Amino acid sequence: MFLTEQFVRRTIALCEFLWEETVKLEFGQRADLADIRRIGIPRALLYYRYGIAWRTFFAELGLEVVLDAPSDRGTLEVGDRLSVDECCLASKLFLGHVAALVDQGVDAVFVPSLMGYGRFDTFCTKFQALPDLAENAFIVAGRRVHVVSFRIDELAGETEETAYLGLAARFGVTRKEARRAYKAAIAAQRDYDDAMAREQEKLVRSISKLPAADRPLTILLAAHPYVSHDPFVGGVVEDALREQGACVLFADEADKARSLKKSYEFSHSIPWIVNRELIGATLLLHEHIDGIVLMSAYPCGPDSMCDDAIERCIKGKPILTLTVDAQAGTAGVETRVESFIDILAYQKKGGYLHA
């Protein structure tokens, strides 16, 4: 028997009510995290998407927020030992960052569980199971890590607001303090995202005003933010592009609301919100770029499908696909980027055009 739309709405409403009631009970009655003063946030994965919000939230609660150093070869080697072979490069780096925070003596490490904000706004399964992954990886290694978490699953009634408020209650703050911290966190992240989008739009406009002969090659780097903005992963590609004189745009820095809306012109069935935004941004910026670099951390499942779809369906711009793994050398990546820019530059001069 098929579920009616009315039944689904009532079920979601009931879940939201029960979750709100749970949060109400927690204030003043459950403060099991009140003794935590130093909380670590791994500089990996969705830190590059929500890091401003997380840091602001805990700072507003009066905690000392600790970040470890940016990724390097040592981070990956530690994470690789804690991980299994099937984990993606980004997950291995994440475990390396958790280990670095544990070594710094933090009281706890913040590792959220993010399911999604809707049917077509979900996250990869690794983000859903991340708290368990972090705890169990260290137990197997004979170490302990105190994980502090919350869960966002809007389809099950576990909203973003109730997740933040429920976690704040566990630190022993009042409802007013919790709500203030949540609002400050969301506002700070929104302001940061808006500022990045405005800066990139300003850059695009400034390039478009230049005479055609003076315009630099403009390359869109389309990748998850924890790939494109991690200096150990995407930093090599960004540096190589800039060294060749290219102007680099980032798909994840485009306006997220507009990108998400635009993505539905490409597909109505893609479930992952970040991939949707990357696809939408690629469509929005398509006419302003000379080429696209699709970059993925091996072996990312969502990227393996979405990047292939971009290559097959978004026409008119040359595309370079890069899959980054745990190999130590960067020469191969640099050579491919250099060749890509050479081809684009030659093509721009008319080298591949025929009457």
Automatic annotation (TrEMBL):
<feature type="domain" description="DUF2229">
    <location>
        <begin position="38"/>
        <end position="252"/>
    </location>
</feature>
<dbReference type="InterPro" id="IPR051805">
    <property type="entry name" value="Dehydratase_Activator_Redct"/>
</dbReference>
<dbReference type="Pfam" id="PF09989">
    <property type="entry name" value="DUF2229"/>
</dbReference>
<protein>
    <recommendedName>
        <fullName>DUF2229 domain-containing protein</fullName>
    </recommendedName>
</protein>
<dbReference type="InterPro" id="IPR018709">
    <property type="entry name" value="CoA_activase_DUF2229"/>
</dbReference>
